[in-house]
């Protein structure tokens, strides 16, 4: 469980940008401390060639497409004639509950991965789908994916050392990695709804675009826009706002990283408040990157506790609880 905290810590990762190995031991300890306490932090000075404005612009270029164009890329559970199941577009799902208020577009590795031998109808390595007749943002989105994958690999080497493992401990996780870059758009809600930066509360008036959850994987890197809305739960159960900090990424770990650490690291519960129209007339944009191991990667605790899991089997089991996939496997 996360500790008590009033705000998320800030970690300067300029050492990764400037290739300063002498600073990495201190950075390793700092990151491990964060993963042991809050499970979340802001990263400043990340080694990316993209500004925040460009990342959000790329996302908006997709979401301004007409709905029929986006639905040609929809996952099969939303458009039964489409072949794609794991990658592609999903629309808002208000009929599934008032807290399912987001649309998204999911992108996997730019290169084609070998298809695994499995009887599952969900191919985790299926190729990406893109709008027809070319899509100008595609090359830049593929580059963003590649840069975030590289950053995730650099970051993973740091807690590995703090856990008493060699820096290349997570290299096996990088083989045929199935990481996902997700573009998200949270539509506006009633102007009378509370501001995302108002005092934390669990009163019924709080409207959510994303319900409380922990991430299921290893590591998440998030671009969030100035609208705000992200909240992280501390150990007493208070929801702590994680407002936008210009130029920063939010990093957090998922259930599998907590497992790898032998429960030393914590996967912290978080949620997203729906953006009010007065604050975000076009809605909220966020762009999370989920680092995911390869299909056959064996995930086990460094201290030998608990049962090891194969990543492909783990994620398929989790998907049975996700609305967008419940009609696919059966």
TrEMBL record:
<dbReference type="InterPro" id="IPR027443">
    <property type="entry name" value="IPNS-like_sf"/>
</dbReference>
<keyword id="KW-0479">Metal-binding</keyword>
<feature type="domain" description="Fe2OG dioxygenase">
    <location>
        <begin position="176"/>
        <end position="293"/>
    </location>
</feature>
<protein>
    <submittedName>
        <fullName>Oxidoreductase</fullName>
    </submittedName>
</protein>
<dbReference type="InterPro" id="IPR044861">
    <property type="entry name" value="IPNS-like_FE2OG_OXY"/>
</dbReference>
<dbReference type="Pfam" id="PF14226">
    <property type="entry name" value="DIOX_N"/>
</dbReference>
<dbReference type="InterPro" id="IPR005123">
    <property type="entry name" value="Oxoglu/Fe-dep_dioxygenase_dom"/>
</dbReference>
<dbReference type="GO" id="GO:0046872">
    <property type="term" value="F:metal ion binding"/>
</dbReference>
<dbReference type="GO" id="GO:0016491">
    <property type="term" value="F:oxidoreductase activity"/>
</dbReference>
<comment type="similarity">
    <text>Belongs to the iron/ascorbate-dependent oxidoreductase family.</text>
</comment>
<keyword id="KW-0560">Oxidoreductase</keyword>
<keyword id="KW-0408">Iron</keyword>
<dbReference type="InterPro" id="IPR026992">
    <property type="entry name" value="DIOX_N"/>
</dbReference>
<dbReference type="GO" id="GO:0044283">
    <property type="term" value="P:small molecule biosynthetic process"/>
</dbReference>
<dbReference type="Pfam" id="PF03171">
    <property type="entry name" value="2OG-FeII_Oxy"/>
</dbReference>
